[in-house]
Amino acid sequence: MAKYFDVHPDNPQPRTIAQVADSIRSDALIAYPTDSCYALGCRLGSRDGIDRIRTIRKLDDRHHFTLVCRDFAQLGQFVRIDNDVFRAVKASTPGSYTFILPATKEVPRMLQHPRKKTVGVRIPDHVVTQALLAELGEPLLSSTLLLPGEDEPMTQGWEIKDRLDHVVDAVLDSGDCGTEPTTVIDFSGGEAEIVRRGAGDISRFE
């Protein structure tokens, strides 16, 4: 059974956040809120976590996983960004955007797109997620919590706990965070390519 953590959306309890971070370090797979919708998350190098996310969402090996980062300095350790792209990404973070960029050697091979050698990165504008990332001290490997055959992600922590009780280890609930996933922008070719229209304003990339 998954552990259930009820967290204040504006003032997350440090002890609870520390417990969740400890569970992630121990290879737990969690469901957690972001500024766009709920996501599945695990430790950066957790092969078991990656396999479980793939199984839950029925993903193939071409799926871009996302490294959810605390800040721009952390993000810069995991992707290569030229000056023009740097300005565009910097101006859009934190926020509801995921950027696909060439991965650095810091990104485990199993997380990279098998052909393009790219990875998704983002910096969320969400108090609870930021608190968790600060406590964890490294990015959270993530994927939108969108189940196969469904059009929208789940929005309620109790519903996630009920439906995924035996396939995730913990549910972090800080209330409804919406159903619209991030806007995905692929910069791996140098120019902005809109891969998915979501919560982030796309006008600056058109």
Automatic annotation (TrEMBL):
EC code(s) of this entry? 2.7.7.87
Q: Which SUPFAM superfamilies does the entry link to?
A: YrdC/RibB
Keywords for this entry? Nucleotidyltransferase, Transferase
Q: Which InterPro entries does UniProt cross-reference here?
A: DHBP_synth_RibB-like_a/b_dom, Sua5-like_dom, SUA5_domain
Segments forming domain YrdC-like: 14-200
Q: What is the top-level taxon of the source organism? A: Bacteria
The protein depicted here goes by the name L-threonylcarbamoyladenylate synthase
Return the Pfam families for the record.
Sua5_yciO_yrdC (PF01300)
GO MF annotations for this entry? L-threonylcarbamoyladenylate synthase
Lineage of origin: Bacteria, Bacillati, Actinomycetota, Actinomycetes, Kitasatosporales
